[in-house]
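Dear colleagues,

For the upcoming journal club I promised to circulate an example of a predicted protein-ligand complex. I picked one with zinc ion because it came up in last month's discussion. The inputs are reproduced below in full, followed by the predicted structure.
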Amino acid sequence: MSSYPYGALAVNLSDVILILSSSGTTGKPVLTFYTEKDYKLWMERLVRNLELIGIGKGDIFVNTSNQGMFTGRGYSEAALLAGAASIPIGPASPERHLKFMVDLGVTSFHAIPSFALKMANLAKDTGLTEKLRLRKAVIGAETWSESTRRRIEESLNVDAYDNYGVAELGGPGIAIECSEKNGLHVWADHYLVEVVDIKTGEQVCEGEEGELVVTTLTREAMPLIRYRTGDIVELLPSECSCGLKTPKVSRIKGRADEMVKVRGISLYPKIIEEVVSSMPELTGEYQIELSNIDDITVIVEVKKWVQEVDRLVNELKSKIKELTLLNVAIKIVYEGKIEHQGKAKRVLDLRQL
Ligand code: ZN
């Protein structure tokens, strides 16, 4: 958005009570504004999210991403409004969070998937899985695959749910999974969603894929009309066996700007993640490097105990080929070598340089 800093503000600055920003995968931070009413409704939606997945009174809740201007921080207050005991640990390493979770008998948490994955690997490698008392986790703000979900659920002994939000649209609290875990229920009393063809902008039919476009219905400070999120989803039928009747979309398949065209094939990083996360010898962290004209190198982290990597390289190559039809090179690095500041950056495109 070229409106930085106050161009998108629709009320007097004196009516604003909170300014947050996107966690910034690209470029300038995008600011998002809340009036008192915006904030109250935001909390109501987050409480609704927590209640839908069964977090509330009796729970001990940790928001692992309670950091500064990131909208994920909203869950700290929402958890206490939902009746849980909320512990604002603040920025801390996965080690420290796990120690708190074990010591205090934490039952639920919020995290971005790359952080939850770090905690999952650590719990498994240090034998903490059995000592955890976790029940439910609400996870979002990055795309994450089903194999990453399995790894998080198994290693942290937790039931993990995806939730969707966009900072510009008010942060999390737009949509969440129900117990069926096969799509996101959209809170249609606050957001009007459309799924459109990326090129033509025409609405797609049920079962088809396109870009999620959102109109805010109740925001005062920063209302947006037909905001193109850049997130690719499939439009699902609104009937759900959980009984809730709302518009439904699939989990995010990828970002339109993350989709890379290689040798005429469209590739979303999530497909690579599906393979990488399914192999126990790997941490689940990965990056995709594009170089020369169309060379792809998939960089993966191997766990410290792994000795033999040739078999892994071959297995990765053939699994990726099977899913994407692409021949890729594999680069193996040791655990902890792939680092991210905040949200994970999955694609390194060196082709334009
Ligand atoms: Zn449902």
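Two points we might discuss: The mean pLDDT is 93. DSSP finds seven helices and 20 strands in the chain.

See you all on Thursday,
B. R.
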